[in-house]
Every structure is written in structure tokens, then in C-alpha cells.
């Protein structure tokens, strides 16, 4: 008999990962709720409380939101997703429950020089998807990655820092904690106080990342649609590479780009996390309606 495990917000994401693995192996039908709960070492009440707390969804709605074919339904409106001009401060009904981002791009020469001359702080704080590891310049967030049981904080930091090997980094958890809290708390998402980010990459990469910021929460688009949008219709593969190099995960929503068939393809921080983020965002959308 499975031991009933204590559950706290700090351990929620580990349990969510286990739930996604279970659903991958057993399918999205959770009609047998007691079996689902036992597989996670939880009571039915704990299972329902977990999903309500983590994403505001019932176990059934959560299972549908993280199903492998969920992204197909998000693609229904893909033709118009990138055609809608989105500016910080624009209060359209489709973006009222979205994370507002103000960005500026560093000159590409800084990227080519490996970030030489840049001073950044970095730090760690909890998020719904494991520990968030963030780098930031005086202009805003420059990198966001994740640490968990498989990826240590140091490994996640090195993953980000190696993108700008000549930059100077100083750890300061207190400096980055407000950035992380704002990024992952929908109650703090406001056009009046956007999350400030700085994009450091090649001209092409920055163009792709700017396009990702136009994809609303609860929707998705394809690599080919992004390529068309930036005027490079034959560059879907290059777009995929640029999406994979996006240093500011979640905030610059590379997780909302999928294959033409709706397949989740890859994600730098793991496809299970991509599924979890899309499921969590389904809860954000549900709460807004």
C-alpha cells in the first residue's frame, strides 16, 4: 500500500511531474480518481487540493490540459495569434489575464563579445515549476531557467551564464526574488507594472523572441508561423533553433511554440515542464473567465 505523503507548496511541482508521468502512461482519462490518487501516494482530497492550489483546475481538467494533444486545441486560432499587434499597456480582452512584458534589446555586438562589460546579478527563488534561477542586468531580467532534482541550481546558473561567458555575475537572491515573484504570480500581472526584460542575442534571435511575446497565454503557434511573421518563410528550422536558445524561459513564452501537428517537440528545460506550464496556464485562463 502506498504511503500517504505530506504535501506542501514547496513539493507541489515534484508531485505534478509524477502526475504527468502517470497520465503519459495511463492516458488522460482520470475516471478512476482513487487509482490516480494512490499512484501519487495521495488521498483523493489531497489530489484535488493539489491541482486547485497549483493551477486552479480539477483533476479531470488538469489531465486534459497536460494531455499530449492539448496543444492541438491551442493551435485553432494560430492564424490570427501573431497578426494582433500587442503593445505594453494595451488592455485588450484577450490579454487581460496575461503577463505584461516591457523589453529592450542589447546591441548584437554585446552578444558577439560574449557579454563583455556587462554586470549581472543572479539568484534563486521558488516558482510553480521548480526553483527559478534568474540573471538580470540593471535594465531587467536577462535569463530564467529552472533547477530541480535532475538539474542543480549551479547547473542551471551555468547554463545561463555560459551564454555570456565574459559578463560578470554576482549572486543576490534578494535582488531577483521580486522579479521571480512578479513573473509567476498572475495577481501581480499588470500593464502598469510590466516585467522588464533585456534581450541579448543575434539580430535574428531577438526578432524571433520579440515575436514570441505576441503569443497570448492559453494559445500557441508554430515554428513556421513565426518564420512567416518575421518575413523568413523558409527559415522554420532556424526559428526552431532560436526558440531553443531563448534565455528567458516562461516570460518570453517559447513554450507556446509547437509543431504543425500540435506536437510539443522539444523544450530546453524538458518537455514535461513544457506540458506543466501549458497546464498551469490553462488554469490562469480558466480563472479569468
Task: Give an account of the 3D structure.
The chain has 289 residues and is α/β, with parallel strands linked by helices. Helix content is 42%, strand content 15%. It contains 13 helices and 8 strands. The chain has helices spanning 12-26, 33-39, 44-55, 59-65, 70-74, 78-81, 108-112, 153-161, 173-184, 203-212, 223-229, 236-244, 271-288; strands at residues 101-105, 119-127, 130-137, 140-147, 168-171, 195-199, 221-222, 257-258. The protein has a 4-stranded mixed beta sheet. Strands 1-6 form a two-stranded parallel sheet. The longest helix is centred in the last third of the chain and has 18 residues, at 271-288. The model is unreliable at 1-8 and 84-96 (pLDDT under 50). One of its GO terms (molecular function) is methyltransferase activity. InterPro entries: HTH_AraC, MethylDNA_cys_MeTrfase_AS, MethylDNA_cys_MeTrfase_DNA-bd, MethylDNA_cys_MeTrfase_DNAb, MGMT_N_sf, WH-like_DNA-bd_sf. Keywords: DNA damage, DNA repair, Methyltransferase, Transferase.
